[in-house]
Amino acid sequence: MNTNLSSRRVLVLEDLTRPREWLVEQVMQAFGPATLVDAATNLGDARALVLAHSYELALVDWELPDGNASALITWLCMNRPATITVVATIHDDDERVFAALRSGARGYLLKSQRNELVQAQLKGIDLGQPPLSPAIASKVLNHFRQPAASARTAGSGPHMPADEQLSARESEVLGLIAKGYKNAEVADKLGLTPSTIGTYVRDIYQKLGISSRAQAALAADRLGLIGAGSRT
Amino acid sequence: MHRWRKLIRRSWAFVFIAVGLASLWLYGVFPAAESPIQLQTQVQHTVQPLGPRQATLGLHLPESASFDLPRLDEIPPPPDDSLWAPAVLPDGQARPPLLRNDQMRELTLRWYRFDADAAVLQHGPGAVGIERIVGGPAVVWGRPLSANAPWQLLHDNRPAWLTQWNRPLLVHLPAEWSQGGAKFQIAVGVSTLSGINFGITPVRVGPASALEWWHRKAMFWRTTAPLLISVCALLLGGFSVTLGRSITSQKSFYLFGIFTLAWAVRNLHYYVSPPDTRLAYEWFWWLTNASLSWVMALSQIFTLRVAQLSWPLTERCLLLFAAAITVLTMPAWPLLAEVMVLQHLLNMVVALMVCTMTVWSAYRVKNTEFRWLAFTLLLGTVFGVHDWLLVSGRLPPDHIYLLPFGCMFLVIVFQNFLAAQHVRALRALGTANEQQQILLEAQRKELDQQHRLLTAIASEKAIADERKRLMRDMHDGLGASLLSSMAIVQSDPNAPDGLVQSISDCMNELRSVIDSLEPSEEDVGSILGKLRHRIGPSLELAGTEMHWQVEELPPLPWLNASHTLLLMRLLQEMFGNIIKYARARHVTLSAHAHDGQIVLQVQDDGVGFDASVTPPASGRGLGNMRDRAQALGAMLELHTAPGQGVHWLLHLPLSNPNPETASL
Q1: Cα-Cα-Cα-Cα dihedral of B523, B524, B528, B534, to 10°?
Q2: pLDDT digits (tens, 9 = 90+) for A52-86
Q3: In this predicted model, what pLDDT tens digit does every residue of B70-97 receive, in sequence order?
Q4: Domain that holds residue B575
C-alpha cells in the first residue's frame, strides 16, 4: 500500500451508524482529505484492522456490541506505542472514560459538542495536547492518592517507581484543573506556557495507564492469574 | 502513721488475738493482785522409801490409784524433824530419752513441808495451790502449829492422777484454821519411782477466793485454751474440706482439713481425761503422741503446697516418718523401753530440718502467704522444742505447754489465705465482668459503626447504580438520540440558530443530574470545577468572560449527593440568570475559606435589577435559590441595583448546622 508522508491513517470504532459517519467526517475535516480512515463497527473487525495496519490515531467507542474496548486499548498501548488511542464519548466525566484512560487511552474526544470544537480537540490530541476535564482530573488525583496506600499494604514497598507516581508539579496542575481552571489559567498561575500544561496532561495520562497496568499486574500476581491468559 | 495503720489493717487478726489474750491475762491477774498470795519457795524436804517396784510400761509412773500403789492417805509425813533438810522449789529431775521397762525401781514419797503465816487467813478460809506436780499421785497434809496438833490429810490426788500431769492442784484449808489466827504447817508428798523424772512447782498459800481465781486462770491456759483452739481449727478444717470438695484444683484444702483433725487428736490429752483402764490408757497416749508426727508432717506438706513448691521427696519422707513413728510406738509391741521422749526428740529434729528448708525457701520466694506459713511453722517448731524440754524435765515444771497454741497461728494464717483467695476471686470476677462489659460496649460500637458504614455503602452503591443506569440510558438512548440530532442540525445550514444551543442545554441538564450522583468527594473545589466545565461554553456564547478565583478549600464533611445537586442547581441558576438577563461582559467567581465558612461569590458587571421590585421573570428563580440555600444551611446574600451588576454571596458552614437530608 502506498502511503506518503502527509497522509495519515486513522481508525474509527463506533457501532452506531450516524455518529460513526459524523466522526469519520470530523476526522477528514481536521486532518485533510488525504487522510485514510478505516471504520469498524465492532471489536472483532477492529482487532483484524489493528493487526493488519498501523494507525497514527484510533478513535474508539467504549461500549460495543461484542464487549468494551479495554483489552483493545491495552493491546494498542503495549504493541503499537506510536498509535494514539482516544476514547470517543458523549460525556467527559463518564466512569467509562476514566476506565479507558486507565486501560491506556491517551485522551478522550467529546462527541457532544460543536463540529469546530470536535475538530479542534482532534488536532490538539494529535499535537500532544489532549483535553482534561475537571471531573477526570479529580479522578486521576484520587487514583494516584489511593493506590499509593493500597500498594504499600500489598507489600510492594513504600515507594512506587517514579513513572507510576505523579510529580509535585503534575499534582499541582491536576489540582488546579480539578478546581475548574483552564489550561491557560493554570499556565498563568504556575508561570508556564499552555503547551507545557498540555505536555503535563499527556504525561499524566501516560502515568495513569502505566500505574493502572502495574496495579492490575500486581493484583493479578496476587491472585495467581499471570500467565493464565491475557484477555479480560 | 499511715504505715502503722496499714500494718494494723493487714494483720488485724493478730491484733485481735493480742487484744483477746491481753484481756484474758487481765482477767486472771487482777483479783489475785487485790489479795496477797504467798509463794513458798523455801521448804524442808525429805524422801520416804516405800519399797521396790517393777517398772511397767506406761507414760507416767507409777500406775494410778487403781493400780498397784499403797494407800497414800494412810502415810503421813515423817514426824522426825531431823530427817528434814532445807530445799528450794521448784524441784525436779530430768528424764532420760529411754526408760527401760524391765528394771526394779524404788518407790518413794518425796515430802516438801513449810510453815505458813496465819496472816493469809485473816480474810476468811484459806487454800493451797500447786501449779503442777509431775510424777506419781500427790498428797497434801496439814496441821496447826499451835497445840502440837496431829497431821490431817487435806487432799489425796490419786483419783485425779490421770490429769495431774497438766492440771493445777487446789486444796482448801479447814475453815476453823482461819479462826485461831495461829501458824500452821503444810506438807506435800509426791510419789516417784527412782530414775524417772518428777517435778514440783512452788506452792501458793492464800485466801481461798484469790486462789480460786488463780486456779481458774491456770486451768484456762492449760486446758480450755487448747480446746478452744482445737475447735476453731476443726471448724476451719471442715470448711476447708468442703471447699476442697468443690474446688478440685485445691488439694491443699483437704490437707488442711486432715491436719486440723490430727491436731484435735494430738491435743486430746489437754482437755480430755485419759481412760483409766490400762489398755485404753496405753492406746490413748499412743494415739495422741503419734498424732504429733502427723501434725508435723501435714503442716509442712500443706505449707509446701500453698507455696506451690514441688518437693515430692520431702513430702514422701515426712509421710513415711509419721507412718513409721505411728507403727513403731504401738502398745501392741512388747517394748522394752518407754520411748516417748525419744519419739518427740525425733519429731523435733525432723521438724527442725524441714522447717529450716522451708524458711530458707520462703526467704527466697517472694510470696506473702508462704512467708507467713513458714513463720508459723518456725514458731510451731520453737514451741515444740520448748515442750520437749518441759516434758523431759529440762525446764521448770511451772512452764505452760506451748504447742497447743502453735496451731492458732496456723489457723489465722490459713484463714487469711482463704480470705485473700476469696477476695482475689471476687476481684477477678469483678474485673472479668468489667472487661466483659467493656468488650461488649466495644463490640456494640463496632457493630453500630459497621451498620452505619454498610448503610452508607448501600446508599452510595444505590447512587452509583442509579448513576450507571442513567449513564447507560444517556449513552444508548437519550444521549445517542441527542447526539444524532446534533449531528443532523449541525450539518443542516438552514437549521434554526438556537437549536444547537437548545440540544446542548438538554445534554447539560442531563449531565448535572449525573454529576450530582457522583460519589461525594466533600470537595467544593471539584464541584465548582465541574460547574465551570458545564456552563463555560454557554457563558462564552453569551459574550461573558469568566474570571476564576478558586482557592484551596477545606472539605465539607456533611456534603452528600443531594447537597451537591442543590449547590450546583443554585449556582447554575445564578449563571443562568447572568446568561439570560445580565448582558454582562465579565463575571467573577471566587471561593475562599474564611472564619469557619466557605464563601462563594459571584459578581457580574451586567445590568443588575432592583431587588425590592423583583422582576417577574426571575421571581421564582430567586425564591428557589433562597430555598436551596436554606436547605444547604447556607446564608445567601444578594447585592444589586439597576445598572450596577449583581453580587451574590453564599456562606457555606464547614460543619453542618442543618443535619436534615436536603431534599431536591
Answers
A1: 60
A2: 988 989 999 888 888 888 888 988 888 888 888 98
A3: 788 888 999 888 999 999 989 988 888 7
A4: 522-664
Q: Indicate the SS3 state at residue B604.
A: strand
- The answer to whether B368 touches B419, Cβ cutoff 8 Å, is no
> Does the interface predicted TM-score (ipTM) exceed 0.90?
no
Q: Which of B480, B537, B548 sits opposite A181 (nearest CB)?
A: B548
Write the single-letter amino acid at B577. N
Q: Contact B143/B152 with Cβ under 8 angstroms?
A: yes
Q: Which domains occur in chain A, in start order? A: 5-138 (3.40.50.2300), 158-222 (1.10.10.10)
Cell of B49: 522409801
What mean pLDDT do residues B339-364 have? 89
- The answer on B269 and B197 residing in a single domain is no
Nearest residue to B378 via CA among B347, B357, B401, B400: B357
Cα B639 to Cα B635: distance, rounded to the nearest angstrom: 13
Q: How many domains does chain B have?
A: 3
- Which cell is B428 given? 477477678
Residue A57 is given by DSSP the state E
Q: How far lies B613's CA from each of B454, B628, B646, in Å? A: 50, 21, 14
Q: What is the pTM assigned to this prediction?
A: 0.52
Same domain, B533 and B609: yes
Please write the tens of the pLDDT for every residue from A77-113.
Answer: 888 888 889 888 877 666 778 888 888 888 888 887 7
Give B72's contacts (C-beta < 8 A, 6+ positions apart): B109, B137, B139, B156, B158, B189, B191
A135 to B529: CB separation less than 8 angstroms, yes or no: yes
**Which residue of A17, A23, A91, A109 to mutate against B (max B Cβ within 10 Å)?**
A91
- The enclosing domain of B123 has a CATH number of 2.60.120
CA-based nearest distance B255→chain A, Å: 59
Kindly report the nearest CA distance between residue A177 and chain B, in angstroms: 7
